[in-house]
Amino acid sequence: MDFITVILIAVGLAMDAFAVSIAKGISVEIDRRRSAILLASLFGGFQGMMPVIGWFAGLGLRDVIMEVDHWVAFGLLGFIGAKMIHDAPKSENGKEADVTLCVAIALAVATSIDALMVGLSFAFLETPILVPVIVIGVVTLALSYLGFAFGSKMGAMFGRKVRVLGGLILILIGIRILIEHML
Q1: Structural domain of residue 9, as residue ranges?
Q2: What is the pLDDT at residue 148?
Q3: How many independent structural domains does the chain possess?
Q4: pLDDT at 149 over 90
Q5: Which of helix, strand or coil describes residue 28?
């Protein structure tokens, strides 16, 4: 697999993490740098780790994973998005203090399930895994950090209404993942 293809796969996989990072950047007010680093690191780490798991799983778990991956992503993103919308009127300026580790891990899992399937396809194609997973992880980390920074700027400008928008974005990403896999 050529390097350009690996870069394109990495950018494609990173788009959900990028969008979720924007949404979380909108809602976090305190300790933004820590939250941005936490999210970007977990998103990059999970995006890099999931293809390895998929690669090792090979054909044995493919059918099981494909039956539930979209439901897991939809459930996690829908729940976190609904919680953001529900909490927006209660919080001061529509902001939350920072991103908790549990929320960050749930978001990282939800946004990296497609990377698991990419790892399966790498195994089927007998593609070496090391370079692609490093590129996927680094691209996701960088785009997630940039997305969080962009979201923070939007949140500072628009306040509580943007937090509701961030929650809606998470829910819509979950719905999109569900629809893509159902079709």
Answers
A1: 3-182
A2: 94
A3: 1
A4: yes
A5: strand
